[in-house]
Amino acid sequence: MTDTPLSPGSTIGILGGGQLGRMLAMAAAELGLNCHIYCDEENAPAYEVAAYHTVGAYDDEAALRAFAQSVDVATLEFENVPAAAMAMVSKDAPVFPPPFAVEVSQDRLAEKRFAQELGIGVAPYREVKSLEELEAAVETLGRPGLLKTRRLGYDGKGQVKITDETDLAEAHELVGGVDALYERFIDFRCEVSVVAVRGQDGEMRFYDPSENRHENQILAETRIPARVPDEIVSNATDIARRIVEALDYRGVLCVELFYGGERAPAPLIVNEIAPRVHNSGHWTLDACAVSQFENHIRAVVGWPLGPCTRHANAVMKNLIGDDVKQWLELAREGNAGLHLYGKRHIRPGRKMGHITWLSAMNGEC
Amino acid sequence: MTDTPLSPGSTIGILGGGQLGRMLAMAAAELGLNCHIYCDEENAPAYEVAAYHTVGAYDDEAALRAFAQSVDVATLEFENVPAAAMAMVSKDAPVFPPPFAVEVSQDRLAEKRFAQELGIGVAPYREVKSLEELEAAVETLGRPGLLKTRRLGYDGKGQVKITDETDLAEAHELVGGVDALYERFIDFRCEVSVVAVRGQDGEMRFYDPSENRHENQILAETRIPARVPDEIVSNATDIARRIVEALDYRGVLCVELFYGGERAPAPLIVNEIAPRVHNSGHWTLDACAVSQFENHIRAVVGWPLGPCTRHANAVMKNLIGDDVKQWLELAREGNAGLHLYGKRHIRPGRKMGHITWLSAMNGEC
User: Residue B284 burial (CB < 10 Å; 0-12/13-18/19+)?
Assistant: First the structure.
């Protein structure tokens, strides 16, 4: 394990080469640290801003080990890195976050059980290993609801909505007939997420919870501060704290929560735990002295954490698919940070960039 | 010339690969733009964060032209790029800032004459082409003063201080016997600099003037706001405006001024014009929504300029030579942005990084 802080000039390995890896690599470069990106794509957004990159499959043992041997510490930028790949890398380099945290978040069932063991609310659910179990679960919990695969889900992938009209056999086939769970639909007021960071010395810091709005199951907009009661802000932060502690976590982690308001069974319910920097924390690039990306890098290399305080209110909007064609209009926006990910091809649903508008924290100042 | 804004995915060529090129390349990457760095060093700080780089001499015509043909627009990160190199590049790519501005700033005599033609104050000086002319100049202007080579000076290089004890023949030899000028020493209160930016459409914007403190003729600290009367702030900005307009400038330019207080012949005197992003503008990375680096990139690719407003007061300290060994203590500082340049070897006088402390603009808020 990394007991002493790594010096400037050290190399951080990053599994994954998307926009999160790109923004991590830039944060590392600001601190005089190099990055080595490992990714299975020929042209990944992170390559262009990293000192080194390897194009390799996540089951290519020789490539993974050579990568691990070339770095001083390793981390990841998406949570679906195969456990076997992480295990291979960890033979030659310390890996943060801890593999256990990644395993929990890769498996929706394990994630829910983990939260429940901590006494944190989750949406009512049943495990589904067959069509019969799906039928029984829907019978017990009622409709509407969501059938979700246990593994490999993000941005609405691996999910089917079950309404009154849905044919269950069809739905079961749609998710591929794999191990899944059925979750009753939660009528929440808004999604709130907390970006937390924990250093090698165990210190924890938290960015202010944000309010998130999704469109087509993809994050569309994040707003800071969240329009929820103060008590909810502190409860959300407390939930993040308990999760980070229980996972003996190192690095940045994001907890997505549903805020149901007074009517809900529990005011806050865990939707997802992401063991990485998170889209709902992109606003920290423009509104904080130290962003989630820099704080993740600091945690990974054993440096003291930076402050999570912010100097502005913020609204972050994702630029998805054709949205990015508006780049020239967006570049004209005053007091906004525009971030484009250098992706060569626009595809529907693809995150191409984001923009964060800043405003004064105290209107009266 | 660049009449229409270059699209994201375009490539900007940068002559020079130091920390300024590195920070320019990162700013470009944030906007989805690629950089190609051209530098004569084997390991330059900018290479690690740029999509492409060429190691080549500044008189290697073939390498320069191949570089120029690979980019959509070119710029520079240090003002001593040989005029011939710029001319070669401009055969195949538009170059900003305009070569005339670079030529003026490369020649201390041309720079002074240019300022004088605009009615802007300069320190009393005489051209010095021989020892005899030096003796006559010192006789006329008095001591103490500075003997400065006309070309290739920065960070105190190419300068010799002339005191009562100085042997003039020795001093003349020290600067290499080349064309020079003798300048009477100005007893100024502080140095103030203005970072200005002008877009392709002619729009001009200005960051708030900073107050600079030098040690051993190298910038040690920049403070925002400058502790000078409001009238001086607006006069300094006006001087920058006149210079930028007269040069028909495109991109970021910095004007260094001496503020002499009420006793001085003119309250503000131009010390230097730097046709590039400047060390005294590094604070904009942490205290502004859009930094000098991003605004230079925006100007070069023909995008609308970003705001030059700041959200905080700032004190920027350069980490020179061994200062950088304090990186761990500096990383512990709250509300500060730490920036390390990834340079592999520490040398006395070498700029290794900087740190910017932020504080609230209005103590009462």
Answer: buried
Fold of B190-359: D-amino Acid Aminotransferase; Chain A, domain 1 (3.30.470)
Look at residues B234, B235, B243, B244 and name the one whose alpha carbon lies nearest to residue B203.
B244
d(CA A14, CA A55): 12
What residue in A sits closest to B341 (Cα-Cα)? A32
Contact B251/B97 with Cβ under 8 angstroms?
yes
Dump pLDDT digits (tens) for B60-97.
Answer: 999 999 999 999 999 999 988 998 999 999 999 999 99
Q: Which two tokens stand for residue B201?
A: 């459409």
Asked whether the whole model's pTM tops 0.80, one would answer yes
Fold of the CATH domain A11-95: Rossmann fold (3.40.50)
Q: B49 φ, ψ to 5°?
A: -115, 10
Instruction: Kindly state the tokens that stand for A334.
Output: 């005053």
Q: State both tokens at A362.
A: 């105290």
Token pair recorded at residue B40? 């004569």
- Residue whose pair of structure tokens reads 């804004």 in the numeric block: B5
Q: Beta strands of B84-198 (E only): which ranges? A: 125-128, 145-149, 159-162, 180-184, 190-198
DSSP string, A82-119: -HHHHHHHHTTS-BSS-HHHHHHHH-HHHHHHHHHHTT
Q: What are B36's two structure tokens?
A: 């190609």
Distance from CA of B173 to the nearest CA of A (A): 40
Across the interface, of B32, B331, B344, the residue whose CB is closest to A303 is: B331
Non-local (6+) Cβ contacts of B92 within 8 A are B65, B68, B69
In b/e form, how buried is each residue of B339-363, taking b as 16+ CB within 10 angstroms? bbbbbeeeeeebbbbbbbbbeebee
pLDDT in tens, A319-337: 999 999 999 999 999 899 9
> Domain limits of chain B?
11-95, 124-184, 190-359
Quick check: A116 and A246 in contact, CB under 8 A?
A: no
A338/B50 CB distance under 8 A: no
Contact assignment for A328 to B9 by CB distance below 8 Å:
no
CA distance linking residue B294 with residue B138, whole number of Å:
44
Count of C-beta atoms within a 10 Å radius of residue B271: 20
**Interaxial angle between packed helices A230-246 and A108-117, expressed in degrees from 0 to 180 and rounded to the nearest 10:** 110
ipTM, two decimals, is 0.94
